[in-house]
Design goal:
163 residues, alpha+beta, Arc Repressor Mutant, subunit A, three-stranded antiparallel sheet, two-stranded antiparallel sheet, 6 helices, 15% strand
Length: 163
């Protein structure tokens, strides 16, 4: 069922009623997007796009990773990934090397500069979020802390089964 809606100051106003479960899902989706956009606004990673930051984070987290696997993990097409990897390489954040098990394949590794940048971005985002959490009333802060395991389970459930 398609619902007519319009944007009013960042909030989607429904013109037909939805089941409460869909209303909650829509609110959660919008909220997660808003939080993500606001936390991306860091000084440390300002020169990189959100996709470039995500690719860098995955390479740092996963260690040597094949380009095909990285494309799948990041859900980007190989052409786009090739451009991103080239830029990250020019910026000295990642490096390529031949896969010792398959010379036809390339592995992507983070450089020390890439690791340091990722740590700075994480520290900056954690500090901003930590400050905002501390500013909340204790009751709201506790509700958020209690929700973390459920949100982690939700995030895991959204991954395709083969990851």
């Amino acid at each position: 069922m398609l619902l007519a809606s319009k944007q009013l100051s960042g909030t989607c106003v429904r013109t037909q009623s939805e089941p409460p479960q869909l209303q909650s899902a829509a609110r959660l989706r919008v909220l997660i997007g808003r939080l993500s956009r606001r936390l991306r606004q860091t000084q440390a990673g300002a020169a990189l796009t959100p996709t470039e930051l995500s690719v860098l984070a995955t390479v740092v987290r996963r260690g040597p990773v094949r380009l095909a696997q990285l494309a799948q993990l990041e859900e980007v097409n190989p052409t786009m990934l090739s451009r991103i990897v080239a830029k990250l390489g020019r910026d000295g954040l990642v490096t390529r090397r031949a896969d010792p098990l398959d010379g036809r394949a390339a592995l992507l590794l983070p450089t020390e500069r890439g690791r340091r940048l990722r740590r700075r971005i994480q520290a900056e985002r954690n500090a901003v979020l930590g400050q905002r959490l501390e500013a909340l009333p204790q009751s709201q802060r506790q509700l958020l802390m209690d929700a973390i395991p459920a949100l982690e389970a939700l995030a895991e459930s959204l991954l395709p089964p083969d990851r």
